[in-house]
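testing teh design pipeline on a random one, pls ignore if ur not involved
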């Protein structure tokens, strides 16, 4: 026999309707102009046997339903019992007869009024965004206090933004770059509605806000040192776009990933060393003049080091590797550490010996996630490797 806990209470009905409110169903329906259709909620109540065995508990349960405010819900009853215990009317179903009745029952009248005001204002200024509001009403309420700023920001970007602008140049009262960064997810949703397709780079995620909406990106820089003797600056950091347009006067370009290794790199005549910082491939790809230079890459001996080499070689097929071989790895076994998150992607641009070592790293042939970082290679190994590179190039 079911206990009283199985019998529906007014609080149960409110919780059930609240779940649908929390999914945005009711407010979306209301915002879309759909006429209210009376909504019924079935109740679990006592059986005839319960009336006979637990009449007092049944009376208490019925009394709580009699105390329900009829302005919030209409209670329908059914007759239970018969000759033995007599016929009794017990609640069987609840009806919600209007939007206003539902708002009152859930205690959301103020939220609905606020949403209605925001929707009406946005329909006048940005009707395409208003369509989104109808589908996502609770998102609108989440940002109700900032909604005007959000809409103004979207409209300013639509009317004024160009590819030559940085996000810092968005000029809306009360809006700065920190506001945009904190609200980029909701702004992205609104901009995707407001802007024409050609103004959106759909290959970029909303997290890359500037890239997705074609603002000018923060410029990348290349940091490099001149390795031979000479006058003037020995080290510079320049914009990638500017270095792409102005080639370096050097026959050989070394690329390394570790900063101290970069700073301590030995002198080489008519050569420069570039600090890759883990982003060597994407930063160097625009430097088309590297195709006419000897290009030597030295990265960590791990799966990601070979992935960087592979990507660099896809652009510059003549790229040579240095100190990324099996002999170097085995000679430094005491310096091995674990690579935190190895990759196993297919690297089609590696040479045969590099591919063999890469596969051994992927398959843990030499040990679990073996990694030899560049800074762990003995310094005494660098100069012979550089000389060997020079000898190979001149032979």
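output:
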């Amino acid at each position: 026999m079911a206990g009283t806990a199985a019998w529906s209470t007014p609080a149960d009905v409110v919780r059930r309707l609240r779940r649908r409110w929390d999914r945005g169903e009711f407010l979306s329906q209301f915002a879309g102009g759909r006429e209210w259709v009376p909504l019924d909620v079935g109740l679990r109540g006592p059986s005839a046997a319960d009336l006979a065995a637990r009449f007092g508990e049944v009376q208490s349960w019925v009394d709580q339903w009699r105390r329900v405010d009829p302005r919030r819900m209409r209670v329908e009853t059914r007759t239970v019992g018969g000759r033995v215990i007599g016929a009794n009317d017990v609640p069987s179903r609840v009806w919600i007869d209007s939007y206003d009745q539902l708002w009152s029952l859930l205690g959301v009248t103020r939220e609905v009024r606020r949403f209605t005001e925001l929707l009406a204002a946005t329909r006048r200024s940005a009707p395409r965004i208003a369509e989104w509001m109808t589908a996502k009403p609770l998102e609108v309420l989440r940002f109700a206090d900032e909604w005007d700023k959000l809409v103004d920001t979207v409209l300013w970007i639509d009317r004024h933004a160009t590819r030559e602008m940085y996000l810092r140049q968005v000029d809306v009262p009360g809006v700065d770059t920190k506001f945009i960064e904190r609200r980029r997810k909701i702004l992205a949703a609104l901009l995707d509605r407001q802007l024409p397709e050609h103004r959106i780079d759909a290959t970029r995620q909303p997290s890359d806000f500037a890239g997705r909406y074609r603002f000018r990106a923060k410029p990348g820089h290349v940091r490099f040192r001149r390795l031979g003797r000479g006058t003037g600056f020995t080290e510079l950091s320049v914009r990638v776009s500017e270095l792409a347009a102005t080639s370096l006067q050097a026959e050989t370009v070394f690329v390394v990933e570790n900063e101290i290794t970069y700073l301590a790199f030995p002198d080489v005549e008519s050569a420069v060393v570039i600090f890759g910082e883990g982003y060597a491939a994407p930063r160097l790809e625009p430097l088309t003049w590297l195709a006419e230079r000897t290009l030597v890459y030295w990265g960590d001996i791990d799966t990601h080091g070979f992935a960087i080499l592979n990507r660099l070689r896809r652009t510059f097929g003549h790229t040579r590797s240095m100190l990324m071989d099996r002999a170097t790895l085995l000679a430094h076994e005491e310096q091995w550490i674990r690579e935190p998150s190895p990759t196993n992607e297919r690297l089609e641009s590696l040479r045969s010996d590099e591919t063999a070592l890469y596969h051994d790293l992927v398959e843990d042939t030499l040990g679990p996630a073996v990694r030899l970082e560049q800074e762990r290679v003995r310094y005494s190994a660098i100069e012979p490797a550089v000389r060997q590179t020079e000898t190979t190039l001149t032979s």
